[in-house]
């Protein structure tokens, strides 16, 4: 009996090692793809390989990366969130409402705008976990609601932050010379999210729900409560992205946001997170976001028309999803 237990334990341990090795290999593959793409554009254009352009790539990664980090938690639970793009626009508008219309101080208005994103995520979580509406439909509805509210609250016109001292510095300021503050913020929140995903109860249950929701529920874990927590936590990143993009533009653009959800989801999948749930990492997501930013930047420098840029990005997404299916079959 002891021998049987030992053998079973060894098998579980070996399976864990195998999964960990596969996860590292996926990250290395994504990183290698990033290096290859970066090298290709460096040789293809004399204007690509420079420090200024490198920082421009990092700066353009901030919004997609921030959205993708929150989306990573959702997709690991085998969920989806289509509302993050228009939700980001709504949070940007709310930032304008708090700071420009109501004249709240910066230290209060910015956290409230971020918390508003968390509130949107909370509503998504309740709709999905309590009302049992499929994530695709629930977040699609929220996407439309957020798009409409952004236009209503802003009266379909941009809200400018010209009189809000220090707001634009959140994104384009430089605590470190030649490094935008937005890049530093992305790095900090990525580290925090990575620690929470790998070391906290929230992260452990996120993986567990995505791996086997039924077994997780049978083990005594309140799956509904933790699903709501995951969507609410992811919503905070939507709020932060809204603040960062409006600080970068110096205005809250109510029509901004459409399409960002697709790029964020693509970054998560390209980075190795499985659409079927249970697998994923913040490092992989950041690599995926960088791949998208490098592609967009390189194609623009090479003067590739926007419509062909969309075609190429769509092909990259198809390849990433196909690779995810292959990984699922091999598992």
From TrEMBL:
Origin superkingdom: Bacteria
Chief place of localization: membrane
Keywords: Cell membrane, Membrane, Transmembrane, Transmembrane helix
Subcellular localization(s) per the UniProt record: Cell membrane
Membrane topology: Multi-pass membrane protein
Claim: Transcription is one of the keywords in the record: no
Protein name in the entry: ABC transporter permease
Provenance organism: Amycolatopsis cynarae
Lineage of origin: Bacteria, Bacillati, Actinomycetota, Actinomycetes, Pseudonocardiales
